[in-house]
Amino acid sequence: MTVIKHAAEPVGRVVGPRIHISAFLDAAENHGGARRSRQIAVEMREKGFEVITRPCSHRAALAAILATPGSGIMALRLALPLLWLGWGLKGFVKAILYGGWLCALVRERRPLEMGLELEPNLNIILGNMLVSLGVSFVAYPHNVEFMVPGQILAFARTQAAGFAAEMRVYHNAREVIAISTFDQTVLRALGVQKVSRLQYMPVPEDRIPLEVVRLARNGVQKSGFLILGSVVNPPTLQGVLRLFDMIRALPGQRRFILAGYGTEALSDRAPPEVEVLGAVSAADLATLMTQCEAMVIYQPPTSGMLTRLVEAGIAGIPAYVAGGYLQAAELADSGIVRIDSLSELPDPTQQVYGAQP
C-alpha cells in the first residue's frame, strides 16, 4: 500500500482542509440520491468540511492529472494491484483517471481528513484509492450496494470482486455512516467496527414543498393510490412490476396512479386500474401528492432506504409498503404501514388511513 505521509510542518503552519466528496450534489435530476447528498452536504459543512464534486468528465479528470505532475504515475501504481483483485479494464481505467484526480487533490490540498459518499461504481473506486493512499476518511453509503437487487458494479469482473471492493472501503474508513438501522446492522454483522446512522431528512429547500402539500391535503377530495419511483433503478422496477401482479389479483375496483422517471415505458404492461403518467413536473407531482388517498410501494427488503417514504410522512400522506421491507419499521411513527397484501389497503369510502405523523 502506498501511503502519502505529510512531513512535519513548521510551527504555525495552517493545517490542511477537511474535504468531502459528494456523489450527487451536481446531479441533473432531483432524485432521492440528490436529496440525500444535499442533506449530507449540510451536515459536512456544519462540521467544517469543504464539499466538492468529482470531475464531470474524463477530460476534466485528465486535466487535473496533467496539472499535477506525478499524480498519474501514482494512480497507476495504486490501480495495478486492483487488476489482481478482480477489477475489469473499465474499472482499472477509471481508477487511473479519477484516482489520478484524487491523487492530485491530495498532493495539492493535503487534506487533514476526508468524507466520501458511496454510490455504485465511481465513488467505490475513489474509496479504494483513498484506502491505498492511507488518507483518513468517513464513508457515507447511500445504500449497501452489494445488497441491492439487480445492482451491477461495472468496475468488477465478478460479484465477489465488487463485494470485496465495497467492503474494503467500509473496513478501512474511520467511520461509516449508514442511512438506515438495517444497513447499519448488516455492516456490523460483517465486521465493520465503527458504523452509525444518519436517517434521511430533507433539507429546508426540499422540506418546504412537502409542508405545503401537507397543508393543501386538508379538506381536499382524495382519489387514487399513488405509486412513485424511478424505474431505471432495478429494485424499483422489480417492485412496480410486482405491484402490477398484486393489483391484477385485487378483487373490486381501485384506482392507482404511477408516476416517475421511465415509468412511461410500462404503459403496455400496466393493468387497467393503473394510470401511467411517466415523468412529471414538480408542480404536477405536488398535485398528485395532494390529491392521492395514499402512497403504495413494493420494495425488495435489501434495496436501501427510500427517501420518498420519509417525504410521504412529512407531507402527511399515508404510505403502505409491501414486499417485507424491514426499513419501513423505522418509520412506523410517520404514517408508514407494512402490508402483506393490497387487500389491506383502506377502503376509500371510509377515509381511514395509517397513523398521521
Can I get a quick summary?
The protein has 357 residues and is α/β, with parallel strands linked by helices. It contains eleven helices and twelve strands.
Characteristic key phrases:
disordered N terminus; 12 strands; Rossmann fold; 39% helix; 357 residues; six-stranded parallel β-sheet; alpha/beta; 2 domains
Structure write-up:
- The chain is an alpha/beta fold.
- The protein has 2 domains: 18-197, Rossmann fold, CATH 3.40.50; 205-344, Glycogen Phosphorylase B (Rossmann fold), CATH 3.40.50.
- The protein is built from 11 helices and 12 strands.
- It has helices at residues 32-46, 58-67, 71-84, 89-109, 122-133, 159-172, 181-189, 204-216, 234-248, 282-291, 307-314, and strands at residues 18-22, 49-53, 113-118, 137-141, 175-178, 195-197, 225-228, 256-259, 274-278, 294-298, 319-322, 336-338.
- The strands form 2 sheets. Strands 2-1-3-4-5-6 form a 6-stranded parallel β-sheet, with helices on both faces. The chain has a 6-stranded parallel β-sheet with strand order 9-8-7-10-11-12.
- Strand 1, helix 1 and strand 2 form a beta-alpha-beta unit.
- The longest helix is centred in the N-terminal third of the chain and has 21 residues, at 89-109.
- It is elongated, with a radius of gyration of 22 Å.
- The relative contact order is 0.10.
- Residues 1-13 and 352-357 have low confidence and may be disordered.
